[in-house]
Structure formats: structure tokens, C-alpha cells
Amino acid sequence: MWKEPAQRISRKALTLWRIYGAIQVGVTTMLAAGLIVTVLLWNWPSWLLAIAAGIILFEILFSVWLIPSLRWKRWRYEVTDQDIELQYGILIIKRTLVPMIRVQHVDTEQGPLLRKYKLSTISISTAATVHKIPALDELEAEELRQSISSLARVAEEDV
After folding, report:
1. How much is the pTM?
2. How far apart are alpha carbons 125 and 144 in whole angstroms?
């Protein structure tokens, strides 16, 4: 059995991802309302309403409750002098190791909901791709950004 990365993202991420799920359920509910109007106007079969209700219940269960919980439990990271290790995924757990020497720059970003909960996402850019650590507390994100930036400079000077 492998050793998991030690650090977790903020627990507030769970609330944030549940809000994203609720927004998604809201969009689906509006589409279902359109279906209800269509069924009533053109006398379509009423079993379509049962399917729409089932889809909404399924989406509430998965998007608002189950997926955010699993996502938060799996998301871990660890920064060492040599590399950045990320672990995430729901059914398939992905582990990524980013060598510090490959880091080109580090950014933090906040959308309106992240700002409301005082969270930030860190983007770690390499030549090939961008790796993100979502929903860290603002202060922790800023300290981590500075730390990764310093470690990347040291790794670059050692080459």
C-alpha cells in the first residue's frame, strides 16, 4: 500500500462543491418545469413527469451529497523540496507527481464563490500542462504559492 500525500484541501470546499451541485440541480429543475408545461399543453404521457422527478432526485443525491463528499475525501497534496504530489478522483484515483524542476510559474485564482468562502485555487504550470489544487484557504494558498515558487527557483539553479 502506498503512502497518501499528507495535506488536505479546506473543509469549506465541501460546502462550495455542494453549492455548485445545487446550481446544477436548479438548471435541471428548470428543464423539468419546461417538460411539465409541455406535458400539460400537448397531453404527452404523464410517465415523463415521473422520469423527470427521478432524474432530479438522482441528481440531488449525487451532485449535492455523494460526489462532493467523495471528492473532498480523495483530494490530497504534498509539497516537498523535490516535487509536488497530487491525489484526486472519485472512482479512479489519480496520483500525479510534478518535479519541482518542471514548474514554470504558480498562480492563485478566485471566483465569486471562492471569494465568499475565502478560498483560492492554485495553478501550477509546467511546459506540458497546468495542475490545480482547488479550494485552499486564502492564507494557505498564498503561502503555498510563495513556497512552490521559491522551491522551483532553487531547483532551477541546481541544474
Report:
1. 0.84
2. 14
